[in-house]
């Protein structure tokens, strides 16, 4: 009996330690190919869909992966619904009766569109991920809050505008964003294009916190350094590609900077994949013209990236960081003598 | 020699005693198990029955609600009038899982008296919101000269 409990204790301890490495040993090929095989399944029979996606898989993380990947690959983002909802919510924000009536009617319309056309907005994605996960006996939650991207009015986020998911795997909560992972609107036509971004799957909560502010603070999944709403609104803009290239965005913490001529500004990141210093470039926009340039210095040691750049002429610049062709983040820098 | 025989006799006696004890155990415990098993099997076959029902929300019948027998793939959906007839005969203790996109899932356990299920599903009262990600580079608003 003593031996048994010792073995149990040992396995349990091992199990807990394994969480730190966070599924690095798991290959998602099988889960991804199952998600692909189920491409033509509609949403009319969710228990069956969930079963098809998860029953050939043994681990919870793979089961969740198949569900998440299926949703990202098969549900389109409805840009016009998004715009309409945004307009109405803004218009009714001081009239709670009209606001609630709008929400109720819109919810019905949204679920109908999701079911029949497989198109939705964020909450629809998060809702579907949660529903399918729960049907597979996984613990999953919808997180409501604020998402901050380059095209939202970044200084004035008045109403919650975004939903994502938290998923419990091996007794630990993780974050993911199926909406942003599914694709982005074409910058010219604004028409949604499927373009899966793997960076939003079980993302580092500290990176997530740069542009996701949950309504309920328990979904930060961080013990310390929890940003205030003001800090959140003044943080740099990071893009979807940041999630594919970075583990952490360390410095600067602010979006807007005022510096003296010839002063140097320092940027710090933790990379998530192998990158060479020559892959780093800055796109600087002065308002009159823009140019791509190499930073004054860029060094990478053990995936820690430090960039320094000196500004030699007065002006007001939008500075965009690129790793190869991936747009990572944006800062504004005012240089004066 | 005599003592050896006596020893053998005692041993045989001991073994015999053990066998008797084991037989007793078998008799004592086995029938109880056998009986309960037979009982439940008999009960189940008597009680197995076709379950019908109707599913609606607070305003109207719901078409295409999924109904599954928990733990299996056996299931059906409601028709336009919200009605269903479950394809497998069910017994007391079986659980039916009702699911419909946008409504709270519900589980109904079949009891001795269940034959018709009238179920009202409640909407998931979630606030629908959505912002899209963008890879459009941020552009500062600048004063025009």
Automatic annotation (TrEMBL), chain A:
Residues 114-180 form the Transglutaminase-like domain. Keywords: Signal. Residues 1-18 form the signal peptide. It comes from the Bacteria. InterPro entries: CAP/Cytokinesis_protein (IPR052557), Papain-like_cys_pep_sf (IPR038765), Transglutaminase-like (IPR002931). The keyword Metal-binding does not apply. This is Transglutaminase-like domain-containing protein.
UniProtKB/TrEMBL annotation, chain B:
Pfam families: CarbopepD_reg_2. It comes from the Bacteria. InterPro entries: CarboxyPept-like_regulatory. This is Carboxypeptidase-like regulatory domain-containing protein. The lineage of its organism: Bacteria, Pseudomonadati, Bacteroidota, Flavobacteriia, Flavobacteriales.
């Amino acid at each position: 009996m003593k031996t048994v409990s010792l073995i149990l204790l040992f396995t349990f301890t091992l199990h807990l330690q394994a969480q730190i490495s966070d599924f690095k040993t798991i290959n998602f090929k099988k889960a991804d190919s199952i998600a692909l095989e189920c491409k033509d399944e509609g949403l009319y029979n969710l228990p069956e869909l969930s079963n098809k996606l998860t029953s050939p898989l043994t681990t919870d993380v793979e089961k969740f992966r198949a569900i998440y990947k299926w949703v990202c690959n098969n549900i389109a983002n409805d840009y016009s619904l998004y715009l309409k909802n945004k307009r109405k919510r803004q218009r009714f924000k001081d009239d709670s009766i009209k606001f609630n009536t709008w929400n109720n009617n819109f919810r019905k319309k949204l679920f109908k569109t999701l079911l029949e056309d497989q198109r939705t907005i964020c909450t629809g994605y998060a809702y579907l991920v949660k529903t399918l996960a729960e049907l597979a006996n996984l613990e999953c939650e919808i997180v409501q809050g604020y998402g901050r991207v380059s095209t939202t009015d970044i200084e004035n986020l008045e109403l919650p505008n975004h939903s994502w998911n938290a998923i419990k795997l091996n007794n630990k909560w993780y974050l993911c964003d199926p909406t942003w992972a599914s694709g982005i609107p074409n910058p010219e036509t604004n028409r949604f294009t499927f373009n899966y971004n793997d960076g939003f799957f079980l993302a580092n909560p500290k990176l997530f916190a740069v542009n996701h502010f949950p309504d309920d603070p328990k979904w930060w999944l961080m013990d310390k350094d929890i940003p205030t709403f003001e800090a959140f609104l003044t943080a740099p803009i990071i893009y979807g590609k940041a999630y594919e290239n970075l583990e952490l965005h360390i410095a600067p913490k602010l979006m807007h900077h005022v510096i003296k001529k010839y002063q140097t500004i320092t940027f710090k990141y933790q990379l998530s994949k192998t990158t060479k210093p020559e892959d780093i470039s800055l796109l600087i926009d002065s308002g009159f013209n823009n140019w791509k340039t190499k930073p004054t210095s860029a060094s990478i040691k053990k995936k820690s990236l430090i960039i320094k750049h000196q500004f030699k002429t007065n002006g007001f610049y939008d500075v965009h960081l690129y790793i190869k062709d991936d747009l990572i983040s944006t800062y504004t820098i005012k240089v004066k003598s | 020699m005599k003592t050896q025989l006596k020893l053998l006799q005692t041993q045989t006696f001991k073994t015999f005693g053990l066998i008797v004890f084991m037989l007793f155990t078998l008799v004592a415990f086995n029938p109880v198990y056998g009986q309960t098993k037979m009982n439940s099997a008999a009960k189940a076959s008597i009680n197995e029955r076709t379950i019908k029902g109707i599913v609606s929300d607070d305003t109207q019948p719901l078409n295409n609600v999924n109904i599954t027998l928990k733990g299996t793939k056996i299931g059906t959906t409601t028709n336009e009038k919200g009605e269903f007839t479950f394809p497998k005969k069910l017994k007391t203790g079986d659980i039916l899982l009702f699911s419909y996109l946008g409504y709270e899932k519900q589980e109904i356990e079949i009891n001795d008296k269940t034959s018709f299920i009238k179920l009202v599903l409640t909407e998931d009262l979630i606030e629908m919101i959505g912002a899209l990600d963008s890879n459009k580079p941020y552009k500062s608003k600048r004063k025009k000269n």
